[in-house]
Amino acid sequence: MTHIKHVLHSNFRIKDLVILKYFLGIEVAHSEIGIYLCQCKYCLDLIRDSGLSGGKPCSTPMDNSLRLHQDDSELLTDVLSYRRLVGRLLYLTTTRPDISFATQQLSQFMSKPTRSHLAAAMRVIKYLKGHPGQGLFFPRDSQIHLTGFSDADWGTCIDSRRSITGYYFFIGSSLISWKTKKQITVSRSSSKAEYRAFASTTCEL
After folding, report:
1. Residue where one domain finishes, among candidates 92, 114, 141
2. pLDDT tens per residue across span 131-165
3. Fewer CB within 10 Å of terminal CB in the chain, N or C?
């Protein structure tokens, strides 16, 4: 590592920051038991910019009974603000897999967002307000054992009737990979949706 730094510095002017503590909005905390990654400051800035600093937090990022779709409610006049908000939520999923599904749902309506989509996005912000410092912990004594999980939500997209694939992977107890994505084709049964989700999970594995 010392040699690589020397070679880089001889060709480019670089600054050795020693132990990583902060990078592109990601905070890194080191301890004897492991490394903790979070985006607390980034999250608090997002809450403040959304005007919800004094709002009441929610216990979940989405209402379980809500199925977002291209509804007939009033279209937003400021589309860019919605896109900017969802973009910031997408970046927050770097250390917050708990909002991956909600953010995936919100990102489907970038072209024509409505008031109901904005309300759903604001609920995610309220959820973040209750846990702004939540992140990922990587214990130093974690076993090198790969474990993966997959699931599918069959035909829940009201607009396309396509299913949603979700998976995540652990090395030991450390979460290293996760994804929520709408499937490419329509599955005519829950079994087919599950098989497609399992195939995507296997490719990632």
Report:
1. 141
2. 898 999 999 988 889 999 999 988 777 778 889 89
3. N
